[in-house]
Amino acid sequence: MKIRISSSTTFDSIVDGPGLRMVIWTQGCIHNCKDCHNPQTHDICGGHEVEIDNIISNIKKLKLQRGITLSGGEPFLQPEALEVIAKEAKINNLDVWSYTGFTFEQLLDSRNPNRFKNLNLLKHIDVLVDGKFELDKKDFNLKFRGSSNQRVIDVVKSLKYKKVMLVEEYMQDNLFEAR
């Protein structure tokens, strides 16, 4: 199975979730957020395809990283490939964060033809930062998000309780130590 990514994977990010992280930059986005941080990832046909086995091989070699982050572009345009990658990260005791321009509710809406694929991916994600970036709500003081409309969601609790459960601010630095 292949996945379309925008560039090489980042192995040492400290801004895309807590701790040192491997970031997979997916290619393709339909949201067209004004002043997007990653406009080079928008073209659905841009970037290049790689075998997910290559990404999984890199995950297995990680030593210092706390987790992986699925970013882009829009990760939920490629949920099947990312499900396999996220599952492997969890097997290797890494936490999984994902960014999306969709809301949690949109991903699981009964009218969404991809809701089951989205749900299968979400089952392997610990934290989801959801919502489009909104320039008029941009705030440099926000942790792990660009605009105040975006939410930092505890996916495990949200799926369990069938409603959005936000990560509490004071828990963000130690989010996974209690699990």
From TrEMBL:
Q: Where is the signal peptide?
A: none
> What SUPFAM superfamilies does this protein's entry cite?
Radical SAM enzymes
Classify the source by domain of life.
Answer: Bacteria
What Pfam families does the record point to?
A: Fer4_12
The name of this protein is Anaerobic ribonucleoside-triphosphate reductase-activating protein
Question: What are its cofactors?
Answer: [4Fe-4S] cluster
Instruction: Give a short account of what the protein does.
Output: Activation of anaerobic ribonucleoside-triphosphate reductase under anaerobic conditions by generation of an organic free radical, using S-adenosylmethionine and reduced flavodoxin as cosubstrates to produce 5'-deoxy-adenosine.
Enzyme Commission no = 1.97.1.-
Q: What class of enzyme is it?
A: oxidoreductase
Its keywords, alphabetically, are: 4Fe-4S, Iron, Iron-sulfur, Metal-binding, Oxidoreductase, S-adenosyl-L-methionine
Family membership: Belongs to the organic radical-activating enzymes family.
Q: Which organism is it from?
A: Romboutsia sedimentorum
User: InterPro entries attached here?
Assistant: Aldolase_TIM, NrdG, Organic_radical-activating, rSAM, rSAM_sf
